[in-house]
Design a protein that fits this description.
Layout lengths: L4 E5 L1 H11 L5 E5 L3 H6 L6 E2 L7 H6 L6 E5 L4 H12 L4 E5 L2 H7 L8
Length: 114
């Protein structure tokens, strides 16, 4: 199984990737924070797989390795670890949101939540 690579994107690059995809199902947005954090505020359309959950690797292992993934957390540390784990599992196109949702919000980019 070949390892993929992780590319860091700043929030402006990430929103461009999302917009260019035009809702393309080949790009999936993955929030690796806790379910409570995800419920509070998130990028619209993101799925939640908690990196700290004992089931994380099992859950991520069943995802389609042919799709592209934008992975984020609060500031980019957990998402970088998750993205690297995904690359080791053979995911070919994994992007890490550098600065996380905190930087995303600081730039006034769209979020949903309570």
């Amino acid at each position: 199984m070949s390892e993929g690579m992780v590319r860091d994107l700043d929030p402006r690059e990430a929103i461009q990737l999302i917009r260019d995809g035009g809702g393309d199902p080949e790009l999936l947005i993955l929030d690796v924070r806790t379910p409570q954090e995800h419920e509070r505020i998130r990028i619209e359309g993101s799925a939640n797989l908690d990196l700290r959950s004992p089931a994380f690797l099992a859950e991520v292992s069943v995802l389609d390795r042919r799709k592209a993934y934008l992975v984020y957390c609060l500031v980019g540390v957990r998402s970088r670890a998750a993205a690297e784990a995904m690359a080791r599992l053979g995911f070919g196109e994994v992007f890490n949101l550098a600065g996380g949702i905190r930087e995303w919000q600081r730039l006034g980019l769209p979020t949903v939540g309570r």
